[in-house]
């Protein structure tokens, strides 16, 4: 048993989709979350900059005495997961491998679409991971640079969102039977994405898949939190405005939250 | 990527229920299996003897250059999993934690039954693991010493099996809503067990749960087998008669098998 919290990092609010899944699947685990909204989106930045920002988030979480770190951000996972995992002596989990595995299991026709930030798509990491396991699978990559700003500005239910998603995804419609939401912000746009792609396309939420993996790793490393531990006190940190963060987070998580500002 | 096989150990043929799940979920992974049928059942033996036998099985698998070892045996997991996991530098997975977690998720009324061998029940390990995570859960333990011999003697579909299962489980009927098959041999008796307990009781197959965890750990440690690797060649070893082993294994796995005798 290990009653310390699990640390989540993201470029902004997207990782809340992973945190929500974790709270649903493992309601007795405590969360410390850091979202770097002040510097979001990470997607268009250089690998060097993303690596450096990610280490700042990791080091912040380490000061909070976390027992595990979840990269609830595809871009950070693509750039820095392997390096951080190797350096730390606590488990470090990324969202890409769980998402890639789930997509391979889901596809029937072997044609998988991947949506991601410019950096995630440029890294071509989903193709790399999926084809290493399943070489015959065809990948259609699509960068969606406008999606994260829509979510971070709390416009993910707007008519603008519908228009942007429709225009962005049009080239993919009818081409794949499985679509990886390869950015943790995108599940907030899920109803619109599903509508544009059609009800028969299976959407893979990399964050939800990752939450199931967290449960397995907590078991494997024997670091579950005891249900007799102190009452839960999730804490959320943002590098930008706590008020803006709280608005999205309370909508998404349907609970009152403690959100604190932090400067890295 | 790591194209080496996954090693499975069991006191006999029970671990085949885990191997079958693995083949279904991860058809591209290769298996080396060792069943100690000559010394089955392990359940009534002393902890010291079980520990010693388990190490013999582990050392045998290590000579087969495995990348991971699965304790496809609850009794061996109860006695020696933590010790072996600590000593080896490859991942070692047991069946108890995956089964315990699944049972906690499945129960609605907080009353979980656990079937196991005398040693597994005596160790009280399911109660220990389940209540550490969920203290309010009530556990009804039941040792089923006659079940493994029924399976090892290929009598698991007989009218004798129906009689034995009925008489053994009678004290549990109506008392729990979830029942852990806390021995990998028991899924071969599943239809009879379900029939005796009633269709509303959720049966937890610790081996099937474990197979899902294997997939997560292969991802986490980045040791999946490439689908471009050499054709699969599963190998099964038994310390008793290969013919008797093959009969059960081919019935259960519905495939032709290479079964070799080995002396430990």
TrEMBL record, chains A, B:
One Pfam family it belongs to: Asp_Glu_race
Assigned keywords, A-Z: Cell shape, Cell wall biogenesis/degradation, Isomerase, Peptidoglycan synthesis
Reaction(s) the record says it catalyses: L-glutamate = D-glutamate
DNA repair as UniProt keyword: no
EC number: 5.1.1.3
Domain of life: Bacteria
Active site: 73, 183
GO biological process, one term: cell wall organization
Pathway: Cell wall biogenesis; peptidoglycan biosynthesis
Annotated residues for binding of substrate: 10-11, 42-43, 74-75, 184-185
GO molecular function: glutamate racemase activity; identical protein binding
Broad class of enzyme this protein falls into: isomerase
NCBIfam families with a match to the protein in the record: glut_race (TIGR00067), PRK00865.1-3 (NF002035)
Record function comment: Provides the (R)-glutamate required for cell wall biosynthesis.
PANTHER family found in the cross-reference section: GLUTAMATE RACEMASE
HAMAP family recorded: Glu_racemase (MF_00258)
Protein name: Glutamate racemase
Species, as recorded: Streptococcus minor
Gene: racE
């Amino acid at each position: 048993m290990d009653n310390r919290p699990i640390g989540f990092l993201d470029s902004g609010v997207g990782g809340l989709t992973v945190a929500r899944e974790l709270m649903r699947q493992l309601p007795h685990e405590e969360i410390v979350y850091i979202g770097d909204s002040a510097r979001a989106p990470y997607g268009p930045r250089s690998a060097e900059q993303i690596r450096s920002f990610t280490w700042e988030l990791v080091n912040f979480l380490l000061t909070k005495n976390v027992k595990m770190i979840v990269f609830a951000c595809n871009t950070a996972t693509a750039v820095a997961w392997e390096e951080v995992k190797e350096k730390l002596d606590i488990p470090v989990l990324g969202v890409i491998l769980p998402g890639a595995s789930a997509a391979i299991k889901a596809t029937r026709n072997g044609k998988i679409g991947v949506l991601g930030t410019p950096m995630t798509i440029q890294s071509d990491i989903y193709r790399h991971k999926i084809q290493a396991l399943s070489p015959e699978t065809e990948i259609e990559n699509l960068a969606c640079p406008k999606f994260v700003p829509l979510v971070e500005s709390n416009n993910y239910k707007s008519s603008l969102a519908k228009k942007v998603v429709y225009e962005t995804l049009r080239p993919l419609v009818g081409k794949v039977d499985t679509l990886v939401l390869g950015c943790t912000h995108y599940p907030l746009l899920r109803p619109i994405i599903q509508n544009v792609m059609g009800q028969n396309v299976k959407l893979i939420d990399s964050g939800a898949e990752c939450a199931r993996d967290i449960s397995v790793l907590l078991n494997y490393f024997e670091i579950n939190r005891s249900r007799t531990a102190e009452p839960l006190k999730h804490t959320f940190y943002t590098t930008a405005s706590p008020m803006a963060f709280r608005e999205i987070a309370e909508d998404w998580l349907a609970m009152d939250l403690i959100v604190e500002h932090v400067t890295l």
